[in-house]
Request: fold
Amino acid sequence: MTVMADIDAGPPIFRHTGRAHIRLGKGQKAVRDALIGKLDQGIYRLEEVKCLCGMTEDVVISETDRYGLPLKTVICTYCGLLRTNPRLDAGSLDGFYANEYRDLYMGADYGDMDSYFLDMAARGREALDLIRKTAPWVDLKKADVLEVGCSAGGVLFPFLEAGARVKGFDHDRRYLDYGNKREPALNLLPGGVETLEKEDCKYDIILINHVMEHLADPAGAASAARKRLKPGGLCYVSVPGLKNPAYYNSPVKSFLGSLHIGHLWHFSRLTLRRLLKDFDMLYIDDEVRAVCALSRAGRVEKDFPSEYASNMEFIRDYENAFAWKLRRARNVIRNIRHLIKLV
Reply:
């Protein structure tokens, strides 16, 4: 059961006005409007989903996303995980990622493919450095590394440079073609989690970088990754991070700016740990980046405290601070305009 929060006594809530919360380019506006049309016409359908913890008691945080789409974000009152509910059903998600996702998310102002690849390579070096620090026993020159949701292969590139044998799966042919043309040894193939589930190969390292939040079944993805790891293998998982300060210093700026149709789940450090409970957690931070290994017998975590209250407090405090900064900026602009008139 989902209830509407009291805007005065309860959490911050964002009403649907139809206006975008972030600046959209002309192409992004066209994609957004096409999406609204598909939702109105029933071409894209929404479905109700339970929280990953299995509970259905929720509080509505927002009735809109950053693009102005009429989508609700709720918080589970049992565990504190945030999710889009209702969300696009499986067929609609497939259509969205095939037809609208990249152009809506990145827009024409994101930069060219070369810049994007280099940005992802920098992210890959951060992942590689963290793995080396956390698990120095891993011999990358003998490692088989797989990335699920590899895009153009930028994250994999530093692992290739370090001597690993690499492979990546993604559904976007444009990015696969670019990466394979730039560096054929990246070995980028069409596919995703469903491909991983059917694989016979096993890997020393599996990378799932900013993918879990997009998946209809992230628990299934975590299970598939466990089955495809070699003994002693590692899984690197990163998500935007509900309480990640760096994320809110990016162009999203506010909590509402972090909500969009492609993010089905909003993990904190604790809720990601809950998702990865069948792994041994070697490292996890608030960004959120996690390095985990196959659990040994008796090492599975089972008891996790609820983050409902702390996540609600974080969202409320952050939005209050954001509103104060916005009012201050408007006052500065107003004073400057007044001084210009006096001159």
The first strand starts at residue 2 and ends at 4. The CA atoms of residues 1 and 57 lie 5 Å apart. The chain is about 40% helix and 20% strand. The chain has a mean pLDDT of 86.
